[in-house]
Amino acid sequence: MLDIKIIREQADFVKQQMAALQAVDAPVDKALALDEERRSLLVKVEELKALRNAESKRIGQFVREGKHGRADALKEEMGRVGEQIRDWAERLRVVAAELFQAMARI
To answer: Can you tell me the distance from the alpha carbon of 106 to that of 31, in angstroms, rounded to the nearest whole number?
Structure first.
């Protein structure tokens, strides 16, 4: 299986080589699109995880300061962020599987 970096950097060359091999069903463009989506999803998931980690520290600070109302509100908000992380991570899993299938055909 080709490395996705090669396909990213030399997409036209890969397409030419696949055409020379008469591999008309090689989904180079689809693989590139899926790779871009996968990378974007990774960024989103990591940003949300970083937010959750930072806010978790704030929750601890609020609890230590006796500001339980603020801590509870932030916990609730971070619960929603956790759900978003799960949703994006599931989408990431699906995209990664589709990318693997496309790469296997190239």
So the answer is: 9
